[in-house]
Amino acid sequence: MAKIEITPEQERLAKIAKALGHPTRVAIVCFLAKREECYFGDIADVLNIAKPTVSQHLKELKEAGLIQGEVMAPKVRYCVNCEVWEEAQAMFSQFFNGCACKTNKNCCK
Length: 109
Fold this sequence. Notes:
By secondary structure, the protein is of the alpha+beta class. It is built from five helices and three strands. It has a three-stranded antiparallel beta sheet. A hairpin with a 2-residue loop joins strand 2 and strand 3 (75-80). The two termini are 23 Å apart.
């Protein structure tokens, strides 16, 4: 059997999946996806969690590229990074559509 090599695309998909691996981060992305922009204070208010915790979740999402932030002193404005959002959508679609179970429903029975 041939060895499996991890591709850059798989590493990218895993990074995005990890960023979405916490329910609070999913909630933040869903919240931001419904708006063109939002300020840090608004996110912290609707989540009802400590601001340092919100900051940590935003940092994880930014590092994955799912969101972007812009300092507009004294506030920080956040929004979904549309380019990465579309990239993630395509990668997850390809990932889930590539399963052999789509053609062989009885593969493990």
